[in-house]
Amino acid sequence: MSSTYGEHLRLTIFGQSHSPAIGMTLEGLPAGEAVDLQELDRFLQRRAPGHSPHATARKEADAPEFLSGIREGFTCGAPLTAIIRNGDTRSRDYEELARLPRPGHADYTAWVKYGPHRDYAGGGHFSGRLTAPLCIAGGICLQLLRRRGVEIHARIVQIGTIRDESPFTAPVADKPFPVSDDAVGRAMEEAIAQAKGQADSIGGVVECVVTGLPAGLGDPMFGGMENRLASILFGIPAVKGVEFGDGFACAGRTGSENNDPFILRNGAVVTASNHCGGILGGISNGMPLVMRAAFKPTPSIGKPQRTVDLSNMTEAEVTVHGRHDPCIVLRAVPCVEAAAAVAIYDAWLCEHGYKE
Amino acid sequence: MSSTYGEHLRLTIFGQSHSPAIGMTLEGLPAGEAVDLQELDRFLQRRAPGHSPHATARKEADAPEFLSGIREGFTCGAPLTAIIRNGDTRSRDYEELARLPRPGHADYTAWVKYGPHRDYAGGGHFSGRLTAPLCIAGGICLQLLRRRGVEIHARIVQIGTIRDESPFTAPVADKPFPVSDDAVGRAMEEAIAQAKGQADSIGGVVECVVTGLPAGLGDPMFGGMENRLASILFGIPAVKGVEFGDGFACAGRTGSENNDPFILRNGAVVTASNHCGGILGGISNGMPLVMRAAFKPTPSIGKPQRTVDLSNMTEAEVTVHGRHDPCIVLRAVPCVEAAAAVAIYDAWLCEHGYKE
Amino acid sequence: MSSTYGEHLRLTIFGQSHSPAIGMTLEGLPAGEAVDLQELDRFLQRRAPGHSPHATARKEADAPEFLSGIREGFTCGAPLTAIIRNGDTRSRDYEELARLPRPGHADYTAWVKYGPHRDYAGGGHFSGRLTAPLCIAGGICLQLLRRRGVEIHARIVQIGTIRDESPFTAPVADKPFPVSDDAVGRAMEEAIAQAKGQADSIGGVVECVVTGLPAGLGDPMFGGMENRLASILFGIPAVKGVEFGDGFACAGRTGSENNDPFILRNGAVVTASNHCGGILGGISNGMPLVMRAAFKPTPSIGKPQRTVDLSNMTEAEVTVHGRHDPCIVLRAVPCVEAAAAVAIYDAWLCEHGYKE
Amino acid sequence: MSSTYGEHLRLTIFGQSHSPAIGMTLEGLPAGEAVDLQELDRFLQRRAPGHSPHATARKEADAPEFLSGIREGFTCGAPLTAIIRNGDTRSRDYEELARLPRPGHADYTAWVKYGPHRDYAGGGHFSGRLTAPLCIAGGICLQLLRRRGVEIHARIVQIGTIRDESPFTAPVADKPFPVSDDAVGRAMEEAIAQAKGQADSIGGVVECVVTGLPAGLGDPMFGGMENRLASILFGIPAVKGVEFGDGFACAGRTGSENNDPFILRNGAVVTASNHCGGILGGISNGMPLVMRAAFKPTPSIGKPQRTVDLSNMTEAEVTVHGRHDPCIVLRAVPCVEAAAAVAIYDAWLCEHGYKE
Predict the structure, then answer these.
(1) How much is the pTM?
(2) Scanning C10, C201, C237, D220, which has the fewest C-beta atoms within 10 Å of its C-beta?
C-alpha cells in the first residue's frame, strides 16, 4: 500500500503540494501519552523551509492542526490526525511543467501512471513537502521513545564529495548546520553555496544513530529492523541508497575483520566493535543502531535541461523556475529521524503490544 | 510480519536449518500459469550448495516437493506450497553454539528474543538455507515475468575490494563464476580461495538488472519500487546495504550531473542516461531497473573468535567447525534475482489485478 | 488494525464525536474518476441527523471538506481525504457520563482499554457519528461502482418485531421511510414513535441487495465476499448479526430445499432460486448479492438505568440526557450501502488491479 | 488476502482436497510454549471424518506432521508449519463434476474465477477438508489460551428446525452428540438420520461461548471482536450467518429490554444480563463472549439436481456420488472453536505483544 506504513502502529500520509492541506493519521498509539506540542514544533521547525540560506524561500507556518486523537494534551487511543494547510502556493509556477516533465522528478512517471488527472502542481503527492506530516508522526514517536529511554539522532556525514569521517559522539541537531566536525561542515556549506550559485543542486548522506534500544526488537527475515527501516526511509523523496552499520564497506572485508566480538561490559553482553550497526539477523542486539541514507541532488535546478513535450511528443527544453532547495540534505536530517522513530516505535509495539 | 512478504502476491517462508523441512507458500498467483519444473530446478541448482569449490560442502538435493497449488503442471489458483526436506543435518556440529553465540550471527539476538526454546541448530530460521524456499518462489515468478517480457539478471560486481566496473551488457548466469569481466572474475576467485585458505570469509556486492519492465509500476511514498525491493532484499541474510541506480554515488554529484534527460527514441520517451536506475518517484520509468545489494562476509569462520558463554556469563572463545561458505556472494546471485522477481511480480499484480 | 479497512482500497476513519473534526482517507482509488459532489451530498443527507422525526435533533451540516486526492472534480491518484468539522457539540451533556458508563455503550470498555485519557464525550471514536466519514467513502465507491454497472440498494425489513416480508423489487431510498411495503412501514414508524414516547429505543434489520455484480469476485476462505462484507458491516455501531442470502433460515432446511439449481437464461448460467445470496464458496456467482444486518436498539435511552460509578466503584443510576435517535435503523440504511460499496469496490480492485 | 488471516498472529492455510497434502503455517506464536500433541490429537479427532454415523465415510488419519516451528515439544519462535497428507482420495468420483457444477457448491464460481486449470476434485481449495488445518491452528491456540485462563466451548443449538433453547452451563465436547439438552439432541440425531435416509442433508446452528476473557480485548470500528471473529468464521465452508450475543433477536427489542445493566459482583464490574454477548463497542467487557454461526445444509446430496453442463452449455442433471456428510454441523463444532481461538489469541497478542 503506497502511502500507509506500519504493522502495529499505522501511519497514513495524505495530501499534495498544492492541495488544500497535507496531513497524516497515526493509528495504534497507546492512550495516555503526553504530546508536548512545543517540543514537536521545535522538531518541525528543523524541517521547515525558509529558515536557512540553503533552503527554498517558500514560507510555510507548518503548524499542525490536530483534528483527532488528542484530548487535553494526551493521546486518547483513537487515531491521531493532524493537518497542515497549504497556504503559500503559486500554482502558476508549475503550469508549464504539466507538459514538460522535469528530469529526475516523478513528473513523467506520475503522467504514465495517473494520466491527465494527476496533480502535477509542485510534484503533487510526490512533493518533498509531504515529509512535513512524516515529521509530525515521527516527532510524536520520538517523544514516546525518549520516555522509554530510546534516543534518535541524525547528522550530515556527506555533501557532494565532502565527507565527515568523524564518529558520532554527541547530538548535533541544535547546530545550524548539523554536522559533527564543524570545519568539514563549513566546506560542505561552501559546496552548497557553490551549487546554488551555479543554479545547480548537490546531494549528500545522512547518518542516523539510535541509542538506548534494548536487544530483541525486530523479527527475522522480512520483519528485520533493516527491512522495516529501509521500507520507510526509501519513502523520503530523493533517497537512493540505505545501509546499516558499515553497510557497503562490509562487502570489502573478511569475516575476521567484520565480525563484532561479544564481550562483557558491566556484566552485560555487548560487542567490542559495531560494524553490524546494532542489528544481527534483523534483530537489535543492544548496541547503537546505525543507518545511513544517500540523497541524490534535488532534481529541480535552474539550468535548462532536455526533456520531452508530452503534449506533442517532441524533444524540448525545460528550466525550473520555482523556489527549490539547492541541497535537500539539510532539511532531510529531521526527516530521517522521523522515519526511524516511526519504524522503531512500531517494532517496539509489535514486541510489547498495546499494553506495553 | 516477519516471514511474510507481499501485498497482492503473498509469500510465506517457513522452516529452520535443521527442522524436518523448509518451505514456502505463495498465494495470489493467477490460475493457469505453466510452471516449468526443469527450468525451476536449473534455477535452484545455481543456489544449491556442494557445486562450487567456493561453497559449503553440505549436500542437499534441494528438490522441492509441491504440496498444493499446482495441478498437472499449471497453477490452479489455490495457494502454492512447496517444501524441501532437510536431509544431511549434523546437529552435533552446533551443540556447542547453544551457549557460545557466534560473532556476526543471529545466535545472540535469537537467544534474547526467543529464550532457551529457540532453535539454535544451524542458525534455525535465520539460516542462509532459508533462501532455498525464497528461490522456489522467485524461480516461479521469474517464469511468469519472462512470459510478460520482463527479464531479471544478477551478477557479481565486487568481491572484497576487487570490483568489476564493466557495465551490464548480457546475462552471465550460465558462467560458473557469474561476472561480466572474466579477468576480474579470476581475481575475485583468487580472493575467495585466499580467504578460505586462511579459514576466513569475504564479502561482496551483487548487482541486479531488470529489463522489459513497463513504466508505471510501483506506488508513491512507502509503496515505491525501492521500498518494495529493499524490503525483501534485506530479508536475504548478510545484506547490509541496498541501493538503486547509482545509489550512494548519486550523493556525490550535482543535479545537472545526476538528472537523466528525457529524450525520444523510436517515438518513445526514454532517458539519455540511467543514474536513477529506472525508478522516479518510486515508479518504474521504463528504463532498466538497477539495484545493488552489499553482502557482509559470512560470519561463520574457522578462526577462533571472542564471545560470551551464555550458560555462565563469562568471556570465552568460539571456533566454528561446521561446513560454511567462504563467500556467500556466489550463491546469493540467484537469491537476489528471486527476491527481485517476487517484489516485481507483486507490484505487477497490484497494477493489473488477478485478472491481469 | 482497528480503524483501517481494505486490501487494495484502503479506508482509514478518524475522529471522535467531539474532536475538532472527523474524517477519512481513501487510498487506492484509480485516477481520473469523476466525483459528483452533489450526488454525494444527497447520499450523505440520507444519513444526516435532524431530518426525520425519528432521529436525533443534533444538527450538523455534515458537508465534507476535501483536503486531498481530488483535482478539478476528478480523483488524481493520491490518497483522498475528506473531513467534517464538529460544530454543534454540547460536551456538558456528557460530563456525568465520564464516571457513569451507559449500559449497552462502549463507555465502560473504552475506560478499561484506554483509561482516564479516553475521549468519553459523545462516545468518542465509538460514536455513531463516525458513520459520516464511512458514508463519504462509500458514497464515492457507489458512484464508481454504478459506472461499472453495479447498483447497491438497502432497505428496512424489520423494526422491533414488525417485519416487511415482501421481496426486494425496486430501490426505496427516495422514500422518507425506506421500506418496500409502505403499509408495514407505517406500522414500523408507529413502533418507533411509541418507543420515543416512552423515552426508549427500538432495534431493527437492514437488508442490502447488490445487483449487476459479475461472477468471480471475492476469494476463497478468509477473502470471501461474506468475510469481506461482515468485516466492515460489524464496524457500523450497533450491528450484532450479519447474514447472507437466507442466512440463519438456511440452517432450518434440507439441502434439496436450500440448493439453488443452475439453469440457463438467455444463454447465461444463473440460479433458479437465490438462497445463497449470490455467493458460493465466498465468490460472487452473478446473482444479486443479498445481505442483512441486525441492529440492536440504540443504547442511549431517556429511562433511568442501573450502572456503576467508576469514580468510587459503587452501584448507581444513569439517565441519558443527550439528543439521541429512538431508532438508529433509519439512518443506518445508507451506512449499510456505504459499507457494502467499500467492500465490493475493494474486491473489484483486487480482481482488476489499479489498471482495471 | 484469501487464505491468510490475522494481524499479530498470522495463519496461512494451503492445500486442496486431493492435492498431495493440506496444511497451515502459524506465524507470530511466542517461543517457549508447550504444544501437547496428544491433546491436539484429541481435538482433531472431534473434526475427523469416519467416526460418526452422521459423517462421511472417507477415512483420514488426519495426523498432522510438524515441519517447523516446534523443537522438543515447544514452540521455538519460528513459523509453525504442519501438514496432513491426503491419502484416501478417489478422484474418479469427481471427474464428472468438472463439467457439471454441483448446486450450492463453489464448483461454478471456481470455474468462473480460475478457469480450466482450477482443481475441481473434491472441491479443491474450497473443500470442507481444509478445516483440518484450521483445527490444527485453533487447537494450538486453545492450549495457549487455556494457560491464560480463557476457555472456548461450542455446542450444537439447532439442527434443521429443532432447537436447543437451554442455556450454556457446561462444556459438552465429550458427548458423542455435543448438545446441552440430550433429549433435544436425540431428536436432532433423528432429523439427521432422516435426511440421510432421503439422500438429503440438513443444516444447523453452532453456538460458541468464550469464558475467562479479560475486558479490554479488541479494537474499535473494523478491529472489533465481532469483526475479527466474523471475518474468520465466514471462512468455514457453509457458514451463512454470524451473530453475537442475542444477535438478530436484539433487533426485535427496545433499548430498555436489551441494555445490560452494569452492577458490582465481588467488587468487580459485571453486567446483570449478557444480551450483548460480552462485547461493547467491539471490545470485550469481561462477560462470556457468545457467538453463533448458521450452517447451511451440505450442498452435496444424493438426489438428482438441475445444473448446467459447462462443456456444451446445456441444461443437465447431476447426482453427487461421493461420500459426504448428511449434516456438517456435528463436525463443525470444533471448527468454530478453532476459528474463535485463532481470532481471540490474535486479539490477545495485539494487546500484549510478543512479549506478553
Answers:
(1) 0.96
(2) C10
